[in-house]
């Protein structure tokens, strides 16, 4: 029997992040949801790829398997409830399907056609994502939970004399990490610097913070947790309460707060993102599912940026900005707060950013990481291009 993640019914609420990945592959702390399950089960966890992202024939599952809602951030208690399911049991919370043990041929995503269920009520409130901004609002709690999940033991790290270390027992360093004359302060949360990462001179890192594999924190950077930086990123300037999914750059001065940055993004020098309205009112943010701006209930909320998007130097982005996939933003002034996919321009004027231009830009950036834009990537980008055409006409 395998554990298999399925895409939740609220998938469209996570666009533009979920344009290019399933919800269960979004980084919500140190880990993505799928990685978290694999940590909890100490084994590979399989998944149903959403139809929008399927290019090749989908993997088929046979026999009884345990299917898990991919929008649930798991902990050990929820893992135990899922692991304890037996055939034809359905785990629910207030009529929401959390997991089930079912014959694979009778299971279709969250819509299960098998009616002979033994209902098991999960009494506690699961940590589930409902909107993109839920990733940001719960970031500190989830990073701390992931540290507990890792159960890291202090191994007596030997830090260079030129670094200032506060609370060394809460700072964990992977292999072949380069640490310059920086400040690492774990008094407010643990710090994990993963394999082959680099911390530049003058950088200040206040936990809780995760620095992913082969990521680089540039000279003079100021990182105030909770912050999670995925693999192969370059980070400079000031960053607080934000997630970088991976393979993205914010290499220069400028402020980024309460934000989510997808993969293959680049924030130009002195890009600044507002995360608090002058009026101190709660922030509204665009929701693709409802096709309108929604109240978030959050006072601090910055930018949600889809994959392959870029900003030019001195770009200013307002509170609660959403940019789609393959956007090219530049020019003076504040652009609008919802920027559809495959759009270029700024406050004065926007026009379409063509598929050909997007392929060329993506391929150029990926080659810098010794990677290529695959044909299946192009197919997904083309689907996003057509899906977002109505938004570009507004």
Structure explained in plain terms:
With 394 residues, the chain is an alpha/beta fold. Strands 11, 12, 14, 15, 17, 18, 20, 22, 24, 25, 30, 33 and 35 form a 13-stranded parallel β-sheet that branches. β36 and β37 form a beta hairpin.
Number of domain units: 2
Tally of alpha and pi helices:
7
Q: Could you state the oligomeric state of the chains shown?
A: single chain
Assess the beta-strand content as a share of residues.
25-35%
- Quote the average pLDDT: 93
Helix percent band:
10-25%
End-to-end span in angstroms? 48 Å
Q: Would you identify the regions where 5 or more consecutive residues have pLDDT less than 50?
A: none
CATH class of the largest domain: Mainly Beta
CATH superfamily of the largest domain, called what? Hexapeptide repeat proteins
Shape: globular
What is the β-strand count? 37
User: What value does the Rg take, in angstroms?
Assistant: 21 Å
Label the CATH architecture of the largest domain: 3 Solenoid
Largest sheet: 13 strands, parallel
CATH topology category name of the largest domain: UDP N-Acetylglucosamine Acyltransferase, domain 1
Helix/strand structural class: alpha/beta
What features would you highlight for this structure?
394 residues, alpha/beta, UDP N-Acetylglucosamine Acyltransferase, domain 1, 2 domains, 13-stranded parallel sheet, six-stranded mixed sheet, 37 strands, globular
């Amino acid at each position: 029997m395998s554990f298999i993640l399925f895409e939740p019914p609220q998938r469209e609420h996570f666009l533009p992040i979920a344009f290019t990945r399933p919800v269960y592959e979004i980084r919500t702390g140190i880990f993505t949801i799928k990685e978290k399950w694999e940590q909890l089960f100490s084994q590979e966890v399989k998944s149903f790829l959403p139809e929008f992202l399927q290019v090749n024939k989908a993997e088929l599952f046979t026999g009884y398997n345990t299917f898990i809602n991919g929008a649930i951030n798991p902990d050990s208690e929820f893992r135990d409830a899922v692991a304890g399911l037996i055939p034809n049991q359905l785990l629910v919370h207030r009529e929401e399907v959390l997991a089930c043990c079912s014959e694979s041929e009778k299971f279709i995503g969250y819509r299960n056609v098998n009616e002979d269920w033994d209902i098991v009520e999960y009494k506690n409130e699961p940590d589930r994502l409902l909107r993109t901004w839920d990733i940001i609002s719960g970031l500190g709690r989830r990073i701390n939970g992931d540290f507990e999940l890792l159960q890291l033991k202090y191994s007596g790290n030997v830090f260079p004399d030129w670094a200032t270390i506060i609370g060394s027992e809460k700072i964990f360093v992977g292999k072949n990490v380069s640490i310059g004359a920086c400040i690492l302060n774990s008094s407010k949360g643990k710090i994990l610097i993963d394999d082959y990462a680099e911390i530049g001179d003058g950088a200040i890192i206040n936990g809780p913070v995760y620095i992913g594999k082969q990521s680089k924190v540039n000279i003079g950077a100021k990182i105030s947790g909770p912050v999670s930086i995925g693999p192969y990123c370059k980070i400079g300037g000031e960053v607080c309460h934000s997630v970088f999914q991976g393979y993205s750059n914010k290499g220069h001065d400028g402020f980024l707060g309460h934000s989510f940055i997808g993969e293959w993004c680049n924030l130009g020098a002195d890009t600044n993102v507002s995360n608090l309205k002058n009026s101190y009112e709660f922030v509204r943010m665009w929701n693709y599912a409802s096709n309108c701006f929604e109240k978030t209930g959050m006072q601090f909320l910055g930018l949600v940026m889809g994959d392959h998007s870029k900003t030019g130097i001195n770009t200013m982005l307002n509170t609660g900005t959403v940019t789609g996939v393959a956007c090219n933003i530049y020019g003076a002034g504040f652009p609008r707060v919802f920027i559809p996919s495959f759009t270029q321009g700024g406050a004065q004027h926007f026009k379409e950013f063509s598929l050909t231009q997007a392929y060329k830009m993506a391929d150029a950036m990926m080659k810098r990481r010794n990677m290529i834009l695959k044909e299946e990537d192009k197919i997904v980008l083309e689907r996003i291009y057509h899906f977002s055409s109505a938004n570009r006409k507004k």
